[in-house]
Automatic annotation (TrEMBL):
Gene name as annotated: Dper\GL25691
Gene3D superfamilies: Gamma Fibrinogen, chain A, domain 1
Protein name: GL25691
Keywords (A to Z) from UniProt: Coiled coil, Disulfide bond, Signal
One Gene Ontology term, aspect cellular component: extracellular space
Domain of life: Eukaryota
Pfam families in the cross-refs: Fibrinogen_C (PF00147)
Fibrinogen C-terminal domain residues: 259-471
Family annotation (SMART domains): FBG
Statement: the UniProt record of this protein carries the keyword Signal: yes
Organism listed in the record: Drosophila persimilis
Coiled-coil residues: 42-69, 109-143
InterPro entries the UniProt entry points to: Fibrinogen-like_C, Fibrinogen_a/b/g_C_1, Fibrinogen_a/b/g_C_dom, Fibrinogen_C-term_domain, Fibrinogen_CS
Length: 472
């Protein structure tokens, strides 16, 4: 609209040198009014232009702030990813080292068992050989006894024959002379002595040969046994040295893991008999503030979820559930990544408190709670054994991935509201919509089905989930 007065002024200015300098009085008055109107419109347009420039500057500043926030968000995302990746790599490296050491240990134990079995087999073989040697000696002694008996029988028979011959000769021959008889007796006696000495010499020679042969065999066997035992002792000593080295390596690894548990895996256990906000350390994340609770079932509990009133919306995005949200002293969800890192290196207990709008309370407790990493969609990997008064409404969700409305694995989060380990769909959901009066029109409140006898119009008015390292 302001273009036409400007064009009119331009025409007037451009034609002013051609038109006569004197104009009718009425024309001059009209021209002054027109000029005043145009000046006023110019001023208004300048003001509008100035306002637009100011707004443009504001938008530019906001755009720069958004760009800085985006860059900061990208930088933090990269750092978090690098931290998570480093932590995952470290975990895999520790697991590989432990598995390798366990395999080496098992191989060493198997090798030693095989050697022990071989040694026992060899000892059994040597014992069998010794038994056979004893049987052989007994057999040789028996043979020697038989030979001695036979020799004695031969001598007796020979003596009987000689006596019979002497008796026959004495009967046939007359007593000629005393000297002849004596010579014959002496000769016969000498022959008997010679035969006896020959028999004894043969017996002694045979016994000595047998003894020498058995002694030589026994000495050879003893020597072989000593050599084998010496070799086995050296092998056992070498294996013991190797076992000591492996034991030392395993102890060092265990010490490293324990050091990491003490240094990195934080919990509220050190803050006994206290319910307050404390700082713990988590791997890849550093120092983290967490609410600790020592007023329920002992001390050392870390609160990971709490609902006390409806001033905090729990129908959040995946990113918000990952990093956590809320007030550490009131309504809160600590964050899936923190919970994963806390339950990563050691088993944890889970304690859940529940309360109706009418004031009745109950609890559920699990002795081996653990969730997976983000790559596993923070799966509810383990719950362990249940105990409590609320009955078990969480086992239905075990081994299920976490879901939110923007990352819904089973299209349940959009219907129920809030993030949870939904199956098809839920027997419990402690992150649903908060209803102060304790009732919901549909199944989107805070519920624990087993305690409510599957009455899903009931919505709990207080819940608290806590974890702590399991005391072995």
């Amino acid at each position: 609209m302001w273009i036409f007065p400007i064009l009119l002024l331009l025409v007037q200015h451009s034609t002013g040198s051609i038109l006569p300098t004197e104009s009718p009085p009425e024309d001059t008055t009209i021209s002054d009014e027109r000029q005043s109107q145009c000046t006023k419109e110019f001023e208004e347009q300048d003001q509008q232009l100035t306002s637009l420039k100011a707004q443009l500057n504001v938008y530019r500043d906001k755009a720069r702030e958004l760009e800085m926030l985006l860059n900061y968000s990208n930088t933090m995302g990269e750092r978090l990813w690098e931290s998570y990746k480093a932590q995952t790599d470290f975990k895999e490296q520790v697991e590989k080292i432990l598995m390798k050491e366990i395999q080496v240990q098992n191989s060493t134990i198997q090798l030693e068992e095989d050697q022990r079995q071989s040694f026992e087999n060899r000892l059994n073989e040597l014992e069998w050989q010794l038994k056979n040697r004893d049987l052989r000696i007994m057999e040789i002694e028996t043979q020697m006894k038989h030979k001695e008996d036979r020799t004695r029988g031969y001598l007796k028979t020979f003596m009987d024959i000689i006596e019979k011959e002497l008796e026959g000769k004495n009967a046939d021959i007359t007593l000629s002379t005393e000297n002849s008889s004596e010579r014959r007796e002496i000769q016969a006696s000498e022959q008997m002595e010679d035969l006896k000495e020959q028999a004894d010499a043969k017996q002694i020679s045979s016994d000595q040969q047998l003894k020498d042969k058995d002694t030589e065999l026994l000495l050879k066997m003893v020597k072989e046994m000593k050599e084998q035992i010496s070799k086995m002792e050296m092998q056992i000593q070498a294996r013991e040295t190797q076992m000591q080295s492996h034991d030392k390596s395993i102890r060092e690894l265990v010490d490293q893991v324990n050091f990491l548990k003490r240094t990195w895996t934080g919990s509220c256990l050190p803050f006994t008999n206290s319910t307050d906000i404390y700082t713990i350390k988590l791997p890849g994340m550093g120092s983290v503030d967490v609410p600790c609770n020592s007023s329920v079932s002992g001390s050392g509990w870390t609160v990971i979820q709490r609902r006390v009133r409806g001033n905090v919306n729990f129908n959040r995005t995946w990113s918000e559930y990952k990093h956590g949200f809320g007030d550490l002293r009131e309504n809160l969800f600590l964050g899936l990544e923190k919970i994963h890192l806390m339950t990563l290196l050691q088993p944890h207990e889970l304690y859940i408190q529940l309360q109706h709008a009418n004031g009745s309370t109950s609890y559920a407790r699990y002795d081996d709670f653990k969730i997976g990493s983000e790559a596993e969609a923070y799966k509810l990997k383990s719950l362990g054994k249940y105990s409590g008064t609320a009955e078990d409404s969480l086992a239905f969700h075990e081994d299920m991935k976490f879901s939110t409305f923007d990352r819904d694995n089973l299209d349940c989060a959009k219907y129920f509201g809030g993030g949870w380990w939904f199956d098809t769909c839920a027997e419990s959901n402690l992150n649903g919509i908060y209803y102060p009066n304790g009732t919901s029109s549909k199944r989107d409140g805070i519920f624990w089905g087993a305690w409510q006898k599957d009455n899903y119009t009931i919505s709990l008015t207080f819940t608290q989930m806590m974890i702590r390292p399991k005391v072995m």
